[in-house]
User: Fold this.
Amino acid sequence: MLTVKRLAEALNANRILMPEPNREVTGGYTGDLLSWVMGRAQSGDAWVTIMSNVNVAAVAQLSDTAVVVFAEGVVPDEAAVRAASLHDINLISVPEGAFAVCAAIARMLEV
Amino acid sequence: MRPASESDGALMSEPLHFHFDVNGDDFTSAGEASVQVKKLLRQLDVAPELIRRISIAMYEGEINMVIHAHGGDADVFIAEDEVTIRLRDDGPGIPDVEKAMSEGYSTAPDNIRALGFGAGMGLPNMKRYSDSLTIDSLVGKGTTITMVFRF
Assistant:
């Protein structure tokens, strides 16, 4: 089972918030347009994005993604982190671009 | 005092009703109503995938009211076998509903797009996740959207 904690370690990610380290990652989705994410991402996905505002927290919560992975070293703004902490949302950040991150996650999930 | 059996029956058949004001001023509070509804449905033991559909569809509706209509209000009715969500605003209305329903069509301004919204997927997502979607819109008057989700 791929947990958020294991994923973060394997990606050598910066842990911004990890209230639920044992949440299972079952898939992945990448995109910055929030309605596409809500329409296409699945519950349990690692959501890879460079969008960093407060609405990311709401979308992650409602879509029930396992973790938000900020690519390109993006750090979410303060309001986003505050909102995410209220809803126990895992947030990590990595320096690589979305393509590289997704490729790494796909290898871990063996898809 | 009514007999217990009658009041029990009334309790069972009367749907739970919740009312929310959707503040049109900022995006930070948009989504508060959907998040509350999500929590409520969780307490009522509704299936997780259905909760997900309902709360996403409601959030899209809230966002639309903030973007286009300076807010509005939302009523949520939870019955034994279905959830009905009614979103009402006094905004500009939708001149061409068919066009508004097509994926990718958006009239959102650039500042909204910069936030990640306005991709023209809001109404399509609401249709996708609900069992029935009714749009009642009058240009210059406002829009009422009713979504039904069956258990």
Notes: The radius of gyration of chain A is 12 Å. The domain at 4-109 of chain A is CATH 3.40.1390.20 (Udp-n-acetylmuramoylalanyl-d-glutamate--2,6- Diaminopimelate Ligase; Chain: A, domain 1).
